[in-house]
Design a protein that fits this description.
The chain is α+β, with helices and mostly antiparallel strands and about 230 residues long. It is built from six helices and 18 strands. The chain is globular and about 40 Å long. The N and C termini lie far apart (about 40 Å). It binds manganese (II) ion. Manganese (II) ion binds next to loops.
């Protein structure tokens, strides 16, 4: 008798609507340093070209979830971000056609083991274990372009235990959503199911067990995560 093949569950993110549905996640791309004030707080020049890293699809975590405090870190950081959900395949997508590829937008957190990231930077090693660990990509429900249009400006704010930690505006993005899609699609072909975390504004910092994170992007509702 042969051993049964293991079954892999498809990672999904909720889609807001009536009735609610699910978006199957293919890949998660993240943009590094996409707000000038955050680049500055991390010790970098704001004008460099965008760069990308990835998280595994099953790192997503829904709104209202408890995120277990991850192993191997003493410095878990929050990075609140606008998330773009891709709905149409393409490569070398021109800037003026890029928004046609967007299915919707969501509020997300790029959770980071900052101490492991600092060590990786120092030693010239990959960021994967600093960025792509289990439950590292909380993402609230996706709001479709049909329902909310495109998000080019509006407040982005994170509170931890009710206190504001990050506050900026989507219009402060160094590389717009369309420019980001243009650049990313010159490196890899984009497909429906891809998520792009577009980078975080200034104010990143540590969280500890018991903290309640409440992120909000104007027009997209909120994302609440408790650190377990
Ligand atoms: Mn980030």
């Amino acid at each position: 008798m042969s051993t049964p093949l293991p079954r892999v569950e498809q990672a999904t993110v909720a889609v807001a609507g009536d009735p609610p549905s699910k978006f199957s996640v293919r890949r998660i791309y993240c943009v590094g340093r996409n707000y000038a004030a955050h680049a500055a707080e991390m010790g970098h020049d704001a004008r460099e070209a965008p760069f990308f890293f990835m998280k595994p699809a099953d790192a997503v975590l829904p709104d209202g979830a408890v995120m277990p405090y991850p192993s191997a870190t003493k410095d878990l950081h929050h990075e609140l971000e606008l998330v773009v959900a891709i709905g149409k395949r393409g490569r070398n997508i021109p800037v003026d056609k890029a928004l046609d590829h967007v299915f919707g937008y969501a509020v997300g957190l790029d959770m980071t083991r900052r101490d492991l990231q600092a060590e990786a930077k120092n030693k010239g090693r990959p960021w994967d274990m600093a960025k792509g660990f289990d439950c590292s990509a909380p993402c609230a429900a996706i709001h479709t372009v049909d329902a909310v249009g495109h998000i080019a400006s509006g407040e982005i704010e994170l509170k931890v235990n009710g206190k504001v930690r990050q506050h900026s505006d989507i219009n402060m993005l160094i590389w717009s959503v369309a420019e980001t899609i243009n650049q990313l699609s010159s490196l890899v072909e984009l497909f429906p199911g891809d998520l792009i975390y577009t980078g975080t504004p200034e104010g990143v910092g540590p969280v500890v067990t018991g903290d309640v994170l409440e992120g909000r992007v104007e027009g997209l509702g909120s994302l609440t995560i408790t650190i377990g």
